[in-house]
Amino acid sequence: MTENTSLIRRQKADMLRESGFLENDADDEDIFDRFKRQQIIPVWEPPIPFDIINLPDFPVNDLPVTVSAYVRAVAETTQTSPDMAAVASLAILSLCLQGKFTIEGKQDWKEPLNLYAIVVANPAERKSAVIALMSEPIKLFEANENKTLAPLIEKSKIEKNILEKKRKVFEDKAAHKSNEVGYNDDGTELDDITKEISEFEEIKPCRLFCDDITPERLSGVLNENAGKTAIISSEGGIFDLMAGRYSQNINIDVFLKAHSGDSIRVDRQGRASEYIRNPALTALIFAQPNVIENLMSNGIFRGRGLCARFLYSIPASTVGTRRFRSTPISDITSEQYYKLVEKLLRIKNDTPKIVRLSEKARLILQAFYEKIEPMLIDELADISDFAGKFVGMTLRIAGLLYLADNSDSGELILSESYMESAIVIGEYFLEHAKAAYQIMGSDKITEQCKYILRLLKKSKTEKITVRDIMRTCRKFKTADETLIPLNRLCEYGYLKEVQSKTWDVNPIVYE
User: Fold this and answer.
1) 507: closest CA among 37, 52, 46?
2) Does this model's pTM top 0.90?
3) Most Cβ neighbours (<10 Å): which of 74, 235, 322, 377?
4) What residues contact residue 419 under an 8 Å CB cut-off, 6+ apart?
């Protein structure tokens, strides 16, 4: 029983004593239960608030040991919720492994290993500090690679310039000679130069992630980086770019296709054609609530499935409870995490390797699938777009957890413990997705409930009927449509049905 409920019961018992109905030494709970049975007074429990949601903490223990240790250390030194670093760690693993492996749930069902993740946090929550610490080994690897590649990159530029000049000289010479009487070219020189140009592969700098980038440029970066890249941002401005900040046109195709691995073909006037056969994009975005609200409220983003591709996290705020003195990250914890990231980044698979499930892991996945599927038309109907992809994303998480420990195994067989951990983590994301959709106004039924409550507060009536609601709330066209939010208001304790299509209103609504 909540503290508020106990208080209400004590207050009602005191009122009955003062009225002379009860002896002064009677027990509050006994009084309350006795009069509830006799129906002398109407009894209402405090209703469940729509906007106060108790969300689970990220199950950090289900991450690989090296990762979980670093996540806890980052949370301690930044004095932030471990959820922030934990979600970031999955995205970092995704960046390292995407395009190199796939995971097979069953025959003819394979998932790539890239994830899109959003952490929702208010200003002053130290989002930038967490992202910086989690992504530092990525930046270090990139810098070291480019230092090593610098001479080869410069040599490649020179060779490219030489080839371009050779082509220009040949074109000018061939054009001039073709006008001469009796000119006859056997094509040998042309074959040689075209072969040389076609076989040339330019060496480019290592580029593992982007931040502020337009969708049009993103497809170019994927094309230049063997179909792989990532977006790591502490602001979320990428959604403004998707919505057409510069082009005035919404462009989310590359984000949709790069999440699922569908091929991308770009043919536009003024641009070289691009073909990315198996794109893989990771996204890690820390954003303020208003940014996510814009994401959720965009009909095209939601309708075409962009919102459904993200994993959502709404960490508990630590503002107001943070300590000045905190424990810094130990050298051994940092070293182990950095070595793991470097090891995974150095994997070179020309063709993605397949991670398969053990028989026990497959049965666990099957049971999880059969649990979630019926919920799509009932409990998860409000977020059915997200829920429809949820099992697949959980399978991807399982692959990341397994490969963090077993990337160099000869036979890649995922055991049941990794699948169990992935499901625990997946259920965390499911609860946070429900909250994200509800808080950001995407839950239509909840919004209807709030609308009815606002009208009730104005009318201060003790009873309502379907007819009252339909007459007052112009949003509802049929009685059946009206019953949906009214039933939810009953579930949350705001209303109590006293007869068919007639409800008492909880007096607390008017307080």
Assistant:
1) 46
2) no
3) 74
4) 357, 361, 364, 365, 398
